[in-house]
Amino acid sequence: MGMHHRREDHTVTAVAPGGRHTAAPVVSAPVVSAPVV
């Protein structure tokens, strides 16, 4: 949905830096990545 971690897949790339959820949805990815970053 327009994240700053948009490289290949807005799903796997968003959780890539976190390294926690590999198959996390796009709705959970930004929520978990936002507070971490």
From TrEMBL:
Source organism, top-level taxon: Bacteria
Region (Disordered): 1-21
UniProt biased composition (Basic and acidic residues): 1-11
Protein's UniProt name: Uncharacterized protein
Species in which this protein is naturally found: uncultured Actinomycetospora sp
